[in-house]
Design a protein that fits this description.
Helix content is 23%, strand content 27%. The protein has nine helices and 19 strands. The radius of gyration is 22 Å and the shape is globular.
Length: 437
Amino acid sequence: MKNNVLVIGFLFMAMQVSAQQSFKFDFGSGTVQKGFLKVDDKTLYSNGLGYGFDFVAPPQAVTFGKDPLKGDACMSDHGFYFSVDVPEGNYRVKLLLGNGLSPSLTTVRGESRRLFIEKLATKKGEFKEVVFTTNVRYVEIDSTEKVRIKDREKNKANWDHKLTIEFNDAAPSVCSMEIERVEDAVTVFLCGNSTVVDQDNEPWCGWGQMLPRFFDDKVCIANYAESGEAANSFASAGRLKKIMTKIKPGDYVFVEFGHNDQKQKGPNDGPWASYTTNMRRYITETRAKGGIPVLVTSMHRRNFDSEGKVNNTLGEYPDAVRKLASDEKVDLIDLNAMSKILYEAWGPEESVKAFVHYPANTFPNQTKALADNTHFNSYGGYELAKCILEGIKIAVSALATHILPDFKGFDPAHPDPAATFSMPASPFVEIVKPDGN
């Protein structure tokens, strides 16, 4: 009987943690701030506890002072993860980074490698507070229907019932974390394919997972894109329906398809037939919910002619998007045009550095060279995200007011040199090419 009571009590506590919509965590081995939950290197994630360090070895818990929040921290020389069970929704995350023992350098990502904080440095004894908003979603659409996710997505952090934060870089260090569910953030839903998606594993990267780094905490990027999807398959899998259950008036729906639609060869397929019809559906359904649709033309593949000019491998699909945007009076980001400028600025040789091109044995169990001219690495995803930001500044003025001030604009004719870009690698690697081309 006693054991049954303990089990029931334990399950009740787990349910309370899972349903909780705000948390305060004090990291380190010292005194715990009142109202905060203690987190040290023994706080490992479990379904029962509902929070803790996850996936890899935990960081070291240290003490260096008497202040409850600024007198201790969890720090490491490698990346580590912290997960919390939460209901789906948008969450504002406030972090206190740094420590009193040594300089720190922390890059923060969330869920499936969405970039939020890039290389934040602190001196010994210096602390910095950062705030961002992220999205948590479940596969359940309603009580009877789920999004039909692919096998490759079943272990993705984007679709579990947790909010996961990754602390990474040369010397990541965190003192405290506060998480609160919010309803006031403008949500930007992303619909697209492997060029947009949050790629869970190195060395792959979509532009959508780099976008959150450039927005203030009043905007939340909810990236629903998935590898291999076309405009019709994205909708038929329930992804669009899921978005329509979460969207509120004033939210945005960005739509970029084309690479995979192009492979559909039925009698009613093509840029001016099924593709245009399918893309129009996103506009109609978004507007019916009071949302704001934004169309994005597909970026080019890395394909050059003998003179170093980009070959158009997408046919008339970008033109179909331009015409649809004009006909429906929808904001347009012409990523196709910007990517041509960008790729030609790089040229055939330098552009390799933006795509998944790596010699054999660069990654564990990689016995063959990777040479992919469609999918980006982190550098490529970062540069394409900057193109999207420049497009937002030009075409989506209300959303542009939330771009962080350190983004000074981007000229695709003058990309950031690859040699100046550095992003710490996440510990998980996948050498299998994502769906789609």
